[in-house]
Amino acid sequence: MSCLSVEELAGLYDGIFFAEKALRLRNHLAMCQRCCHEFSLLVDMQKQPLPRAFSGQVPKEIVSQAMEKRSVPKLGKTVSAPNPLRGRISDNNS
Fold first, then answer.
1. Which are the contacts of 8, defined by CB distance < 8 A and separation ≥ 6?
2. In angstroms, rounded to a whole number, what is the distance separating the alpha carbons of residues 38 and 21?
3. In CA terms, which of 33, 41, 62, 88 is 20 to 30 Å from 1?
């Protein structure tokens, strides 16, 4: 088996895998020094609080600036949606 991906290590930490896959990943972890080291780094990282800059809240000024700089596509001729109340074409043209 090849080494575990970051997604697999994180999923194992979060407990998102079914028992069979989790057991397979844990068995690999027990035998692979590299993956064991990566997993321990992930566990240590999860224990540390996030720095203030990553509090999850973006200042309103930055959001406003981003919205102003955002490019809005130019629309050409507008076309209205089909009218659902118009008569329908039937298979019987009699």
1. 25
2. 18
3. 41
Residue in the block written with tokens 């509090």? 55
**What is the rounded distance in angstroms from the CA atom of residue 76 to the CA atom of residue 68?**
21
In the numeric block, which tokens belong to residue 68? 């102003």
Q: Kindly tell me the number of DSSP H helices and DSSP E strands found in the chain.
A: 4, 0
The CA–CA distances, whole Å, from 15 to 8, 39, 75 equal 10, 13, 47
Q: Does the predicted TM-score (pTM) go above 0.85?
A: no
Residue 60 CB-density burial (10 A; 0-12 exposed, 13-18 middle, 19+ buried): exposed
Over residues 37-71, the pLDDT tens digits come to: 999 988 888 777 666 655 566 667 776 776 666 55
C-alpha of 43 from chain center = 21
Question: What ranges do the domains of the chain cover?
Answer: 1-48
Query: CB–CB of 29/4 below 8 Å?
Result: yes
